[in-house]
Structure formats: C-alpha cells, structure tokens
Amino acid sequence: MTKICRFNHDRIGLVEGDEIVDVTAALDVLPSARWPLPTSDLLIANLDAVLAAAGKLRATAPRLPLASVTLLSPVANPPKVIAAPVNYLKHQDEANADGGVNFAKDVKTIKEYGLFLKANSSVVGTGEGVEIAYPERRTDHEVELVVVIGKGGRNIAREDTLGHVAGYCLGLDMTLRGTEDRSLRKSLDTFSVVGPWLVTPDEIADPNALAMTLDVDGAPRQRANTRDLIFDVQQLIEYASAYYTLAPGDIIFTGTPEGVGPVEAGEVMACSIEGIGAVEVAVRQAARQY
Ligand code: MN
User: Fold this and answer.
1) Dihedral of alpha carbons 228, 93, 195, 119, sign
2) What residue ranges in the chain does DSSP mark as E strands?
3) 4 CA to centre of ligand 1 in angstroms
4) Interval between CA 113 and ligand 1 midpoint (Å)
5) Residue 255 CA to ligand 1 centre (angstroms)
6) I need a labelling partner for 15 at 20 to 30 A (CA). Which of 55, 58, 109, 253 fits?
7) Cα dihedral 254, 260, 263, 268 in deg (nearest 10)
8) Is the pLDDT of residue 105 over 80?
9) Residue 62 or 90, more confident
10) What's the longest Cα–Cα distance across the chain?
11) How far away, in angstroms, is 87 Cα from ligand 1 center?
C-alpha cells in the first residue's frame, strides 16, 4: 500500500495523507551504475528493494507537509514514453467534430494508428508545471491514466501484463494543435506531466475502472472513466511489447477521453484519477525557443 514520490532535489518520499515521509536514505540500496548506463530507470528497476528499505526507515524518518514540496516525476529516467492515440470513442467523435487530427480529417482510432512515442525530455512532475511555448497556437490538455512498467519484456501475454506494472500515475499528454507529427507536437519540454506520485498496483483493484476529471480554473472540462478505453491497460502492454522491448521505467500514456480543450499561461489545471489522487498543475509562458 504505497504512494512513492520524488520531490525537491531528487528526494524520495512516501505519501501519507497530507504528509511526506522523507525516505531518501533508501536510495542507498541502489546498485552503482557505470557506462554504458542501463536503458531503464534505476529506481523503478529496484523498486521492491527501495520500498523494503523505506519501510525500515519510515518510523524515524523526517516528515514534512506535502504542500511544502515540489513534486517531480516519480520516474526520473524513463527510457521510453509510449502513448495511445484516440483510445476513447467519444474523443474520436470530438476530434472529428473539431476538423481532424494531424494529417487526417477522418479520425480513426488506436486500432488503425497503433502507438506513438514522446521524447523523454518532455517529462516533468506535477509540481513543475506546463510551459506554453507557442501562445499564438492552441495547446490542449489531455488527462490520462499512466502505467509505469516495472519488469521489462517482449511479447508479453495478456494474462501476464499486470505483473509487469510497477504502478500507476496521473498523466497530462499536452498537445500543440497542428499538422506536424504527434511525436513533435506532443514532445515539447514539460508536455508529459507524470505524477503526482507512483501508486503501487496493490492499491488499484482494476486499472480499467477509474474515474478521472480535469478542470481548468474551476471550469469542468474532462469527466470520464477508464472503463471506456478501446485498448484497455492489459491490451496496451501486450500490444506495445509486441513492437518494443519494454524496460523498467517505461511510461505508457493510455489515451485521453473526451473533453480536451485549450489552456493558456496563467491558468491552473486541477486533475484527479480515482485511487491515485488529485493535484493542481500550473500553466505558464515559456521563453520562446526560436
Ligand atoms: Mn493523449
């Protein structure tokens, strides 16, 4: 029963109510790494050992208010950020009503599109916020359940998939609207928000039955449930592993439901996923890149 977070300057904490138990010393169990570094996240690959060490530290570890820290992505070094396009039928409907996606006016679903990859440099935590780089264009929010792979593999059978999951997070797959490929428009710095913490699978009875919400400055935008996924969590892992060798720390954005819409600098996205938690993510103006 664990919510583990990364906060401030790469400290590690257990989230208990509105407090964080600082168990950073548990990182001492991690093996030292040298070149070539493994294409995996060292913490996620050794999560069981870290959590065991954290459990021993917990009683005497310092506690601090959750509200006082900056939450970073619980996965520091995701080897891959895999994402599902159009994985809810009602989002397909709204994308078609809105004139299409990418190069296509006739928007199809994940069954036709498969998966895409986002740059791992786009990953931030909920405390870091989202930067708008092109204010003259529309940037949309997409709240999504995120799956973090704990045990790698290739060609994982459906019945084995959930055994490869390290945990679940809330995700924001931020999207610059336009004609460019998804891998460009969705990979700007800060466009993959992951957090606010990692929830271990024992806390999530069924990842395909989680309510989620997103409001912008108090106005409801997204109200949905993962029961409406076209490819459910097991199928996403099975499908992804048929194409990519999965590694510890790989992140899968499972797709956004209906209700996507624009955000601008100065606004706040309030997001929640059942069993994971609720968090606010700020939107701010970025320095222009060119
Ligand atoms: Mn998405």
Assistant:
1) positive
2) 3-7, 11-16, 19-22, 63-65, 71-72, 81-83, 116-118, 123-124, 130-132, 139-141, 143-149, 165-173, 175-176, 192-199, 211-216, 219-225, 251-253, 261-262, 268-273, 277-285
3) 24
4) 12
5) 4
6) 253
7) -70
8) no
9) 62
10) 58
11) 8
As given in the structure block, the two tokens for residue 216 are 């912008």
Q: Is the per-residue pLDDT at 102 higher than 80?
A: no
CA of 174 to the centre of ligand 1 (A): 7
Q: How many CA atoms within 13 Å lie on the side-chain side of 167?
A: 28
Enter the pTM of the model. 0.97
Cα 219 to ligand 1 centroid, rounded to whole Å? 20
Q: Residue 106's pLDDT band (boundaries 50, 70, 90)?
A: confident
Please state whether the peptide bond connecting residue 31 to the residue before it is cis, i.e. omega within 30 degrees of 0. no
CA of 44 to the centre of ligand 1 (A): 23
Cα–Cα distance between 197 and 212 in angstroms, integer?
16
Q: Which stretch of 78-92, 102-116, 223-237 has the lowest confidence by average pLDDT?
A: 102-116
Q: Can you name the residues that pair with 88 across neighbouring β-strands?
A: 229
Distance 142 CA to ligand 1 centre (A): 6
Could you tell me the distance, in angstroms and rounded to a whole number, from the CA of residue 143 to the centre of ligand 1? Answer: 8
pLDDT in tens, 191-221: 999 999 999 999 999 999 999 999 999 999 9
Separation CA 251–CA 83 (nearest Å): 8
Cβ-count burial of 225 within 10 angstroms (0-12 exposed, 13-18 middle, 19+ buried)?
Answer: middle
253 C-alpha to center of ligand 1: Å? Answer: 7
Tell me what the pLDDT averaged over the chain comes to: 95
Q: Report yes or no: 130 and 284 within 8 Å, Cβ to Cβ.
A: yes
User: What is the model's pLDDT at position 184?
Assistant: 97
Report how far apart, in Å, the C-alpha atoms of 209 and of each of 41, 169, 204, 225, 259 are: 28, 14, 9, 6, 18
Q: How far is the CA of 137 from the centre of ligand 1 (A)?
A: 18
